[in-house]
Amino acid sequence: MKLERSNTSEAVAAYVLRRLFDGDLRSGQRLDLDAIAEELGVSRVPVREGLIQLERDGLVERAHYRRAFVAEFDDATVREAFELYGMLSALTNRRVARRRDPAVLEALGKLDEALARCDGPDEFESLAREFRRVVNVAGAGNHLRALLRTFSGLVPVAARFSIDDALADERAALHAEYVALRDGDPAAAGAAALAHLRLTADNAIRALRRRGVFPPGDRSDTDDPGWDDAARIVEGSET
Amino acid sequence: MKLERSNTSEAVAAYVLRRLFDGDLRSGQRLDLDAIAEELGVSRVPVREGLIQLERDGLVERAHYRRAFVAEFDDATVREAFELYGMLSALTNRRVARRRDPAVLEALGKLDEALARCDGPDEFESLAREFRRVVNVAGAGNHLRALLRTFSGLVPVAARFSIDDALADERAALHAEYVALRDGDPAAAGAAALAHLRLTADNAIRALRRRGVFPPGDRSDTDDPGWDDAARIVEGSET
DNA sequence: AGATTAGATTTTGTATTCAATATCGAAACC
DNA sequence: GGTTTCGATATTGAATACAAAATCTAATCT
Fold it and tell me: Is residue A55 helix, strand or coil?
């Protein structure tokens, strides 16, 4: 197994995550430290640290001197992740829209333009991530950034499925976010983030079902009350 | 230095956090791995892993092959942490209130009773943490629990200051949460969580200022728009 | 004098080794 | 026959040792 040789522990986390999305690893399955270490040709220390990261991301269960297991990973779990990520993104969007920082808006404008022109999922994904990064740096403090980082493994990987399946919808949703931010409308910017992530979640979960990643009996509906809770962020009048 | 000998890395994280709240460590200050390791009489591996955890919590800045530093830590940062924690707690409260699980409500009822009777900050703190734990287990999925865990270091330590300073207010705020949960009123339960954490944040920040933990010029006001953003979760009609 | 770069030093990351704990299986007991 | 306890095995956690990278210092050049 070839391996990115900087930040081994993150590479390990990415590797395990990929196998999760490939359907190789199922909920409750045990994670053999030594096996992973050997598969990747690294020591056990970075493997452990990678699993610690995944534990913090809610994807792995660990206990002192006990084996590590894959945490619950079904469509409801993925949906919850996107609900939370959408809620937090709505927060950052609100702040950025309220601040109206010209430098930030100009940077976002350039990205929006590039996103409109760009072709191909690779380029789109790269630009979209940069867009979100700029917004987060501008609108999130240390702790909010830390929370968002919790999803830095899962969300991009899942979002890629949505990009591959529905590039046009993704483009429109992201553009809507930009417009709201440019107009300095916090409520609209928050709502746009939530709508975008909800779209992404639906597409991603559909794709993952097709791939057989989720256990068969799993079929939680697309309109669970979690989204309504999250929507409270963007409802109500201006602050 | 004496040290709890299970989960060394967590003990390290707790130790660094304590020194942060004691004012020994300031923003931007470098964290010497070897020094900490020697102070605690442990190796460098668990120290590094402890700092990795604090990095994930937004309290430490780290980069590949670069020294570790204390992240920004001022009253605005602490307030943001409580805003986010309050928002997430509001989410769990909403869910628990909607579910109306009799077993959960009974457990919470017992805790509420004990909280009404109990005397002394130690006992109150213990019961209050248990109360929150029960709610989180009942109302949060893997990812929401992971996000809440992000604050498992900072929030309890800071909250303790509020308990010491204003036990009566804390008791009232927590009881209000219980009442809303028992009545199955999601909106009220969410609002109560937010109000509670806002109270806690104000008290804690006041105490930390007294202790001289924050840099001197630091004086962000108590009514920043972040709370309003968070409040959007709990406003609006029932789902 | 100030900037630049090459070497020495420090510091971090990873591998290896050793210790601590849990898991698994078989024998003993009820 | 089923359950419990004790020992062997497996597996994780931490300490030590080694390698890789950055920082610091000082000498060199402009």
Answer: helix
CA dihedral over B37, B41, B44, B45, signed as positive or negative: negative
pTM for this one? 0.90
Q: According to the model, what pLDDT value does residue B238 have?
A: 35
Residue A175: what residue type? Answer: H
Query: A residues 187-206 near B, CB within 8 Å?
Result: 190
> Both tokens of residue A156?
């991009």
**Rounded distance, CA A74 to CA A218, Å?**
7
Q: Which residue of B has its CA nearest to A87?
A: B233
Q: Count A/B contacts: CB-CB distance under 8 Å.
A: 121
Inter-residue contact A142 to B58 (CB < 8 Å):
yes
CA of A6 to C1' of D21 (A): 11
Tokens 């945490």 sit on residue: A71
Q: How confident is the model at residue A229 (pLDDT cuts 50, 70, 90)?
A: low
Separation between Cα atoms, residue A194 and residue A234, nearest integer Å: 8
Rounded to whole angstroms, the Cα distance separating B150 from B87 reads: 13
Percent of chain B with pLDDT over 70: 91
A33, pLDDT greater than 60: yes
d(CA A146, CA B53): 11
Calpha distance B239→B234 (Å, rounded): 11
- D chain positions with any atom within 7 Å of a protein CB: 11-17, 20-23
In this prediction, the residues of chain B whose per-residue pLDDT falls under 50 are 233, 236-239
Q: Does A77 touch chain B (CB under 8 A)?
A: yes
Structure tokens at A230: 């999250």
Q: What is the pLDDT of residues A146-179, one digit of tens each?
A: 999 999 999 999 999 999 999 999 999 999 999 9
Q: Hey, what are B188's tokens?
A: 């009220």
What is the spatial distance between Cα B47 and Cα B31, in angstroms, rounded to a whole number? 10
Nearest to A94 by CA among A217, A180, A196, A221: A180
At B3 the pLDDT is: 54
- The nucleotide lying nearest A43 (C-alpha to C1') is C15
Q: For A67, left (φ over 0), alpha (ψ -120 to 50), or beta?
A: beta
Within 7 Å of a protein beta carbon, the nucleotides of strand C are 11-17, 20-23
